[in-house]
UniProtKB/TrEMBL annotation:
It holds the Pfam family APH. Residues 94-241 form the Aminoglycoside phosphotransferase domain. InterPro entries: AGP_Transferase, Aminoglycoside_PTrfase, Kinase-like_dom_sf. This is Aminoglycoside phosphotransferase domain-containing protein.
Length: 348
């Protein structure tokens, strides 16, 4: 996302520790106590945690998270059950320096086995140019095939939820979409209204466990761009299938602040490859009604993701985007994928 200055690991770490009642040295000592070896901070830190590699061979990830943003261990366990080795195994090791300081949060400690590979973002930085070379065509085919198989794992493992859970989620979607109907420019109103009108069809889709931040920084790949793992499941939740499919666009095109979205030359082939592989993995072709429901689910998820400010438990409630740096960047997504005829979502 857009930033006003160059990313600084030290600044990001320092900012995290202004919010907590413990210290960086205490965290690193705890990591050594738990897994031994040495401690190396991960290159890009999250906004709500301090994360390090540790162990004799740096084979573990130790993460210290603000208590208000604790991991749901039931979701972490379910992710392992649904996605197997593509999701990390997570163990909880208590809190550091929990006290009664109302202005500072304790940090909760989690240990995970380190998943092999590099982020897809790092792969692109190392190998992504020229974008439309034969080697990058091959890399994107590998990744899109594996992502289709990954998504099919959730379809093949539908989750039972209570009627109360389903109704609560539906009410939340409707409330947020109605807010966007009042806040976003008029050109988006027909699309938002379509989502509201077709809410029942979205909730006819399987309820599945979805990774909600399925982007280039959370996808791990090998040297051939095959998927090796998916990290950062903090925002994962059970919801109708299709709620993270808008993320596929980031693997089949690119967005720039000045010019907006641009598709790779193999965009159409990659989209077809995804859905052909997905159909093979679930063992059937999707009906036209199901495809329409998935299209709406994908659009709705994009609106709810890019139409609002960030959703974190320790921040004020999200509000519709406005005319600032974040708002303008998110608007590139909305215009590019919903309005611009050259780059908007293809029909399934």
């Amino acid at each position: 996302m857009p930033v006003s200055k160059e990313y600084s690991q030290d600044d990001a770490i320092a900012e995290l520790f202004t919010q907590t009642c413990t210290t960086r040295s205490s965290c690193e000592s705890k990591a050594l106590e738990l897994v031994g070896g040495t401690v190396v901070p991960v290159e890009v830190q999250g906004v709500c945690s301090y994360t390090v590699y540790a162990g004799p061979k740096l084979e573990y990830v130790v993460q210290f998270r603000l208590k208000s943003l604790k991991l749901d261990l039931k979701i972490a366990t379910l992710a392992e059950q649904v996605y197997g080795s593509l999701a990390p195994s997570v163990k909880f090791h208590g809190a550091l320096d929990e006290n009664d300081n109302a202005e500072k949060e304790p940090l909760l400690v989690y240990v995970m086995e380190r998943m092999m590979g590099i982020t897809h973002l790092d792969f692109i930085l190392a190998h992504g140019f020229p974008e439309n070379s034969e080697s990058n065509f091959a890399s994107r085919r590998n990744l899109m095939t594996d992502i289709a198989r990954f998504m099919a794992l959730s379809w093949n493992a539908p989750q039972e939820v209570s009627s109360e859970y389903r109704e609560s989620l539906c009410r939340k979607y409707i409330s947020d979409l109605q807010l966007l109907l009042l806040s976003l420019p008029e050109r988006f109103h027909p699309t938002i209204q379509r989502c509201l009108d077709q809410m029942d069809s979205v909730f006819s889709l399987p309820m599945v466990l979805l990774h909600r931040d399925f982007g280039t920084s959370n996808i791990l790949v090998d040297e051939s761009c095959h998927l090796t793992g998916v990290i950062d499941w903090a925002e994962a939740e059970i919801c109708p299938f299709g709620q993270n499919l808008h993320s596929l666009e980031a693997f089949t095109g690119t967005v720039h602040l000045r010019n907006g979205w641009r598709r790779y030359e193999d965009y159409n082939n990659l989209q077809a490859l995804f859905w052909n592989t997905f159909s093979d993995e679930i063992g059937r072709e999707l009906s036209s009604e199901t495809k329409k429901a998935i299209e709406t689910s994908r659009i709705m998820a994009l609106l709810l993701s890019r139409g609002f400010t960030k959703r974190f438990a320790n921040l004020p409630p999200p509000t519709p985007i406005c005319d600032n740096d974040v708002g303008r960047y998110n608007m590139l997504y909305l215009d590019g994928l919903l309005i611009n005829t050259a780059t908007k979502f293809l029909e399934l």
